[in-house]
Amino acid sequence: MRQLQVDSGGLPLFVEVGDPASGAADAETVLLLHGFPDSHKLWRYQVPVLREAGYRTVTPDLRGFGESGRPDTLDGYRLTASVKDMVAVLDSLGVERAHVVCHDFGAVVGWLLAALQPERVAKLAALSVGHPNSARVPTIEQRQKQWYMLLFQFEGVAEELLQRDNWALLREWTAGAVDQQLWIDDLSRRGALTSALNWYRANQHPARELGERPQVPSVAAPTLGLWSDRDLALTEEAMQRSEQFVTGPWHYERVTNASHWMQVDQPEIVNRLLLAHLGG
């Protein structure tokens, strides 16, 4: 495993690279993208399996998370900026084309990368979050599940409420999550929580619904969509509807007995599905 720092327009990005167990120099690359409130550590059960199967793994901390830099302005957290980050990561490693496995906000980045930079994505596996067009008109169920997005818009208030009484609100909201203490330790660092919440403030403000949302192009890469039956934030319908926005081969699977973080709750099932999709 190698730890690197990649420069993306002046912002440092932490990246961990795992070479394939075979040592093959021409191994295919898998780019794994986490979301809120995670870091590259989210993929700790997938990386060893992918490497053993002959893939090179690339797991960055998205801007504002983990050990990566934190933009000074809210615009620095826009999704398009993170898409450019991933292009910079691939360029720095000399990777022309990679498979992309992505989750949560990282899944939105992955969908956009595959849609806007199709030549860079060989195959896509999106966990929890469907194609951006699938949720342009959110259902009442979706709004109810994502109540926290409105809370996160209140700068200062959200930070205080989440941390109050030893992170009681976060603990109750994500009850049973395996990585709960890992998140709290990470978000307790100076400025880390605000940076993480800025993803919502820059991309999920309610005012965005008042304007015309741009249509995201369809994805041509073979795509796997995974949704878990105990997801606290996303609906199955949105993931299933993503098939309408994939022109390449599409496959959907529901992962049972798993929370929003299915790759941690059911790693063997997720790994099997990923390997089957990637061809390993």
Blueprint of the fold:
Blueprint: E1 2-8, E2 11-18, E3 29-33, H1 47-52, E4 56-60, H2 79-92, E5 98-103, H3 105-116, E6 121-127, H4 140-145, H5 147-151, H6 157-173, H7 180-187, H8 192-203, E7 223-230, H9 236-241, E8 250-259, H10 262-265, H11 267-278
Parallel strand pairs: 3-4, 3-5, 5-6, 6-7, 7-8
Antiparallel strand pairs: 1-2, 2-4
Helix pairs in contact: 2-3
CATH class category name: Alpha Beta
> Secondary-structure element sequence?
EEEHEHEHEHHHHHEHEHH
Q: Which class of secondary structure composition applies to the elements?
A: alpha/beta
Question: What is the CATH topology?
Answer: Rossmann fold
Q: Biggest sheet, strands in spatial order?
A: 1-2-4-3-5-6-7-8
Query: What general form does the structure show?
Result: globular
Number of domains in the coordinates?
Answer: 1
Which consecutive residue ranges, at least 5 long each, have pLDDT under 50?
none
How would you state the average pLDDT, rounded? 96
CATH superfamily: Alpha/Beta hydrolase fold, catalytic domain
What percent of residues are in strands? 15-25%
Largest pleated sheet: 8 strands, mixed
Separation, N- and C-terminal Cα atoms: 20 Å
Give Rg in angstroms.
18 Å
Just name the CATH architecture: 3-Layer(aba) Sandwich
| Count of DSSP H/I helices | 11
Number of strands: 8
Summarize the structure.
The protein is an alpha/beta fold and 280 residues long.
